[in-house]
Design goal:
The chain contains 11 helices and 13 strands. By secondary structure, it is an alpha/beta fold. It has one domain (4-344): Alpha-Beta Barrel (TIM Barrel), CATH 3.20.20. It has an 8-stranded parallel beta sheet with strand order 2-3-4-5-6-7-8-9. The two termini are 18 Å apart. The mean pLDDT is 97. The structure holds N-carbamoyl-L-aspartate and zinc ion. N-carbamoyl-L-aspartate binds next to loops.
Length: 345
Amino acid sequence: MTNTLTIRRPDDWHVHLRDGAVLKAVTPETARHFARAIVMPNLVPPVVTGDDAAAYRDRIMAAVPEGMSFEPLMTLYLTEDTDPKDVRAAHSAGIVTAAKLYPAGATTNSASGVRDFEKIRPVLETMAEIGMPMCVHGEVTDAEIDIFDREAVFIDRVLDPLRTSIPQLRVIMEHVTTKDAVDYVRSNEERLGATITTHHLIINRNHMLVGGIRPHYYCLPVAKRETHRLALVEAATSGDARFFLGTDSAPHVDAAKETGCGCAGVFSATNTMSCLAYVFEKEGALDKLEAFASLNGPAFYGLPANEETITIEKGPAAAYPDKIASGSGPITLFDPGVELEWRVV
Ligand code: NCD
Ligand code: ZN
C-alpha cells in the first residue's frame, strides 16, 4: 500500500477568486497548494479588457500571503463588443492567457455573455491565429431545454459547429459533467481539452436532492446522474492528456447559498488535493493523479509543468474546517461526505 505520493506541484485550470473581502479570504486557499490558476473573469462588472485583467491581477497578487508563491493566469470575459485588437494586445503583452465564453444567462454573473455567437467570430478568429485558447461554459440557455440536458445540447448546437468553422481555435470545455462531453472530447484528436472539477468526481444529483435540498452541492453545470459521474471519474483517472483539473472552486457566502434562490457554486479550493487523492486511490489510479492535476493542464496550454513538488500522505483523517471566514461572511467548504485520509504535507 502506498502511503506517500510526491507529484509536481499542481495547477488549477478553472477557479473563481472573486474580489474584495472574498478575494482576500480565498486566495490563500488556492495559493497554498496550487502554483498557478486560470482565474475566471465573471466579476461584477466582468473583466473584459486587458486593462481590467491587469488591474485584477494586481488585486489578486496583493491577496497572496507573504511566503506563498502563486501565479494567476488571467482570462478575458468575451462579450459581443469585445475588441479583437485589445485581445491581441493583452495576449501578446502576457497579461492574459485565455478568454472565457459564457452564453448569456448560463451561470453566475453571465448577463454580459454572448447571445449571438456570430458577433464574436472576429475575436475567435484572432484567438485562433495567435494561439490563445477559448475556455467555454458549455451549456445552452434556451428556456425549453431541461437543465440536465443543457451541456449535451450545447455540444451539438453550438460547440461542434463553431469548432468546425474555426478549426484552429484551441478550446477547453470547462467543468464537463456528462458522458456526452467526455465522449465528444475523446472523439477529437487535437485542440480540444476539458477541465473536470473536484466535486463532479464525487457527487451526483442525488447528493444534492435526496433527503433534503443541499444548497452547497448546487453548482452549474448541475451535477448529473451517477452514470455521468462514473464517466468523469474514468476520464480523469485514465491519464488521457485531454482531461485536467479545473476545480471550479466558486465561493459564495452562506447567506447567498442558504436562501430561497441560492447561488450556484461549490467552494473546494481548501481540500481539493485530499479529495482527489481519495478519488484516485479508490480507482487504483494514484499513479495518474500527477497527470490530471499537474501535467495535462500545462501541456494543453503550452506551458511548462511546475518544477516544485508536493507530497501527499495518507494518515488519520485530515482536519478541515467546515467553513472559512471572510469579511463578507462565512463560506462553506465542499463536504465530500467521506473521511479524507490524504493530506498535503
Ligand atoms: C460559478 C460562479 O459562481 O461564478 N458557479 C458555478 O456554479 N460553477 C460560475 C461557473 O463557473 O459556472
Ligand atoms: Zn466556474
